[in-house]
From TrEMBL:
The keyword Zinc does not apply. GO terms for molecular function: ATP binding; proton-transporting ATPase activity, rotational mechanism. One of its GO terms (biological process) is vacuolar acidification. Residues 1-70 form the ATPase F1/V1/A1 complex alpha/beta subunit nucleotide-binding domain. Belongs to the ATPase alpha/beta chains family. The keyword RNA-binding does not apply. Keywords: Hydrogen ion transport, Ion transport, Transport. It comes from Noccaea caerulescens. It holds the Pfam family ATP-synt_ab. This is V-type proton ATPase subunit B.
Length: 77
């Protein structure tokens, strides 16, 4: 499953350490309700939603904060 793939990323036998992973997903028709981005947001610490419409309006960075999410946000606010 996807979480197992993420957990194995960067693992080196006999060595300790960690890796920062930034999965970048592109869904057909920008569908964020697709199971892959939904599952990835659940597995990782959050998602940053890059909005094509904001980009087309030349708003940079084109981050749409409403559909973006973070597990750490509640502690920060």
């Amino acid at each position: 499953d996807l979480s197992t793939i993420y957990e194995r990323a960067g693992r080196v036998h006999g060595r300790n350490g960690s890796i920062t992973q930034i999965p970048i997903l592109s869904m057909p028709n920008d569908d964020i309700t697709h199971p892959i981005p939904d599952l990835t947001g659940y597995i990782t610490e959050g998602q940053i939603f890059i909005d094509r419409q904001l980009h087309n309006k030349q708003i940079y960075p084109p981050i749409n904060v409403l559909p973006s999410l973070s597990r750490l946000m509640k502690k920060a606010i």
